[in-house]
Prior knowledge:
5-stranded mixed sheet; alpha/beta; 8 helices; Fructose-1,6-Bisphosphatase, Chain A, domain 1; single chain; D-Maltodextrin-Binding Protein, domain 2
Amino acid sequence: MNALDEAFSLDDDHRLAARIATAAGEALNAIRASAVLAGKPLGAVGDAAANELIVRMIGEVRPDDGFLSEESAPDERRLTCDRVWIIDPLDGTREYGECIEGRDDWAVHVALTVGGKPDACAVALPALRLTYATGTPATLSAAPQGKLKILVSRTRAPELAQKVAERLHAELVPMGSAGAKAMAVVRGEAHAYLHAGGQYEWDSCAPVGVALAAGLHASRIDGSPCIYNGADARMPDLLICRREIAESMLAAIAASR
């Protein structure tokens, strides 16, 4: 029985999510290490390969569950399902393609939602050989010393984040993948991750589930909970932060909008 067959026999959703995310990450590492491609072509190959692997693994063990992936055709059946897997097979495609620079801020997101809420979730950071999962929640590291650090997108940092940073005298720190940013907050590398202005459910679902399990605050920027498996897969904003600063972050966001 190979590693994938072992994963197929798992009955525990949390272990399954972690195993699938890890397996996809291992495949992406192998592709990245052996490829003669770089940039967008490498990202396209990695996206397709990871998606095929994840779809196959979930399909073999959870065939009755709904499915939503950035890289798959829409499955309208999911809207009638209570259990729905929400997947980003390669979050941070740009960073993955920057293999010459050796960037590690890309991720694999695997999340099972039940009734629209993240349940069994995993975020793999393959370049770091790490997988964070709800089955074994990460121990939250101490907050960084000094000025408040807020993680934002490398390529589309929202204007709102700059206004919030000015109000809180915070430092904005650019980083790639949403999963990488959320896990950096878990590891104590920053206090918060703030995004506004364009994301989809697969960008945030697994990171939100893992962040909540680790004891962080995770919500929309108006403070409402993140609810998934909507007919419209867009979810344009997100706040993940340490609980002790959630109130001040939300107040600064409200004052800056």
